[in-house]
Fold this sequence. Notes:
Helices cover 89% and strands 0% of the residues. The protein is mainly alpha-helical. The longest helix has 37 residues, at 50-86.
Amino acid sequence: MKDYIEERAISIANYIIDSNATVRQTAKAFGVSKSTVHKDVTERLVQVNPALAAEARKVLDVNKSERHIRGGLATKEKYLHQHSDML
Length: 87
């Protein structure tokens, strides 16, 4: 694995842990795809730093378990905003 990929994987994991970020937020911050973020954390980082990978994975698992709630809140906000424009 190339050095810059290892460094990116470590940086991504630290960002996820420090900011409690989602895969989507992390991908946007680093200018990479969601697939790259996921692969960096779940495959590449495990080879480089298993402890850091496990810690980042915990944050991603919590975010994944809560995503349906965030989606529902976003939809609620969208419809509240649309209906207030009609009044």
